[in-house]
């Protein structure tokens, strides 16, 4: 697969899907859903210029520190972390770039995810301000908050319907602006959900992304996923998100085991290292 990708016989999209599959990710498990990168940083221009490197996200950095401002906070958190019991390793992020709640967050307008979201929120929609209501606002929140580290899901590159409230769900209204949450607000350069998907996919297959995608792959699937390289890259997540970090079979206490299983399922899981 790698050789084919290098020779440009398969697209960036196909390569990412295949890597996800090899690393144990699947559409059938929300806790191990395929993970895709944020690739753009320009969600405000009238036109999207894919020949300008400045419109792209820095793919060599975890999303939590793409904004330089957050790097210091994230570093300090890691350096100052002490677990009195000595069980929990130091980490940069207590949340994860891919978890079940994040998948439901993005896909809330589409069944079965709507129903799953409502079940997760004890029978109702979460408050409107926490809903996925705007792509520019979601990016801005990532830039402002080092605790929000959600990457994307493959749907952002092929599935315009998830951006529309075709089922007419009542998702509430935003507290400050009183704006009703309906279809997802798109970047200015996208004239419709279809146009967004078309341009976003074009961005994924652009020259810039083709040249830098391997840097992100190293962080998510490769050698910067764990160990000293991960520490240096500010890419260490909470210990139980890693494959093999917890031996569930060794836990004899049923309650403890259930609690840990729940934690792993909700927290997110790092893909198998390739």
TrEMBL record:
GO terms for molecular function: protein kinase binding. It comes from the Eukaryota. Gene3D superfamilies: BEACH domain (1.10.1540.10). Pfam families: Beach. This is NBEL1 protein. Residues 1-274 form the BEACH domain. It comes from Platysteira castanea. Keywords: Repeat, WD repeat. GO terms for biological process: intracellular protein localization. GO terms for cellular component: cytosol; membrane.
């Amino acid at each position: 697969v790698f050789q084919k990708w290098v020779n440009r016989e398969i697209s960036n999209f196909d390569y990412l899907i295949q890597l996800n599959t090899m690393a144990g990710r699947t559409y059938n498990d929300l806790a191990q859903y395929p993970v895709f990168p944020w690739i753009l940083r320009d969600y405000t221009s009238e036109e999207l210029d894919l020949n300008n490197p400045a419109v792209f996200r820095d793919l060599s950095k975890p999303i939590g520190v793409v904004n330089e401002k957050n790097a210091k906070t994230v570093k300090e958190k890691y350096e100052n972390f002490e677990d009195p019991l000595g069980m929990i390793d130091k980490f940069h992020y207590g949340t994860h770039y891919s978890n079940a709640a994040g998948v439901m967050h993005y896909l809330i307008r589409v069944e079965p995810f709507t129903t799953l979201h409502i079940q997760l929120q004890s029978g109702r929609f979460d408050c409107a301000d926490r809903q996925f209501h705007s792509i520019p606002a979601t990016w801005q929140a990532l830039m402002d908050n080092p605790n929000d580290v959600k990457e994307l899901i493959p749907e952002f590159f092929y599935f315009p319907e998830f951006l529309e409230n075709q089922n007419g769900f009542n998702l509430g209204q935003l507290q400050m602006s009183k704006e009703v949450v309906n279809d997802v607000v798109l970047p200015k350069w996208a004239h419709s959900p279809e146009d967004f998907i078309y341009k976003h996919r074009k961005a994924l297959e652009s020259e810039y992304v083709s040249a830098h995608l391997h840097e992100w792959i190293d962080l998510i699937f490769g050698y910067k996923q764990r160990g000293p390289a991960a520490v240096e890259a500010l890419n260490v997540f909470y210990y139980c998100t890693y494959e093999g970090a917890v031996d569930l079979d060794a836990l004899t206490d049923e309650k403890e085991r259930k609690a840990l299983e729940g934690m792993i399922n909700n927290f997110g899981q790092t893909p198998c290292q390739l």
